[in-house]
Description:
Keywords: Ion transport, Membrane, Transmembrane, Transmembrane helix, Transport, Zinc, Zinc transport. Residues 214-287 form the Cation efflux protein cytoplasmic domain. It holds the Pfam family Cation_efflux. 63% of the residues lie in helices and 10% in strands. It has helices spanning 16-41, 44-70, 85-113, 120-142, 148-177, 182-209, 219-227, 262-277, 289-294, 296-302, 310-313; strands spanning 4-6, 232-242, 248-256, 281-288. A 4-stranded mixed β-sheet has the order 1-4-3-2. The longest helix is centred in the middle third of the chain and has 30 residues, at 148-177. Mean pLDDT is 78; it is low at 1-18 and 299-324.
Amino acid sequence: MGTHQHHHHHHDHDGKAPSLLLPLILIAGFAVVEAIGGWWTGSLALLGDAGHMVSDALALALAWLGSWVARKPATRKHNFGLVRAEVIVALVNSLLMLAVIAGIAYEAVHRLVEPQPVQGGEVMLIAFIGMLINIVVAWMLHSGHHSLNSRAALLHVLGDLLGSVAAVVAGAVIYFTGWMPIDPILSIFIAVLILISTLRLLNEVLHVLMEGVPRHIDIQAVEHALTATAKVREIHHLHIWALSSEKTALSAHVVLEDMRDWHPVLSDLRHMLHERFNIGHVTLQPETVDALTSGAAGCWLTGKEASEPHHECDDHDHDHPHTH
């Protein structure tokens, strides 16, 4: 009766791929139009927005690939499936966005030093169309799933939407006043806004990759809920980590008075963890008070003789103090 492992397989990603395909086509198609328009009008804001849209298209392509890979079933080599793929894709997208921001900032500074003529009216028209497309795509992504992967793609599109707004404003100012520096100034402003959001997302992605406790879960609350369950005496070796932004795993040792109570207790614990904390991947190991006291419970883990002292059998126990 060493361990019991239970998995809930929710196909959260089902349907995500088609929802990403149409935005991908829209973004990629207009990126070409905006790049040509930016080159023709001489607008950095438009060229920067086109750069955003190219990165958006790549982000959406990666997000589509990530969602497709994440739906693959578990195998002997990857027994949790490939759900971590969406986190890796979000990391790649974040790093890509940092590169785009750096490129825009560099070109903007160059434009401030050496202003170049911009056709304000044409910039306004092209940027306005781009803004409408970005609003539609952002709405599509926001109304879908809210995984790290889709949020990374949405971040790209929102950044591009801000870029389109900036390009419209820049075009209007240049058209009505002829003041050229507004073009690179607004480009830098948008780059800073996107940088803040990107760093926040990057921090969250790294937290998942470092096996941190999911930010929406209070580990002390989970521990209290486990120990409050009927016939549970103690909980120790409690670990909670995120497989992806939508799937959480937990493992723990559960101490009982009588091992005959284990199966109903296991059912109660599984149900409580799923309903209260949305934890679907649960691994619980039962132990009895007598076995824990004598050291036998620790010896189950290492194969040492039960007569040896408990602290020599389980050298990890000091890292996870018992909770009564």
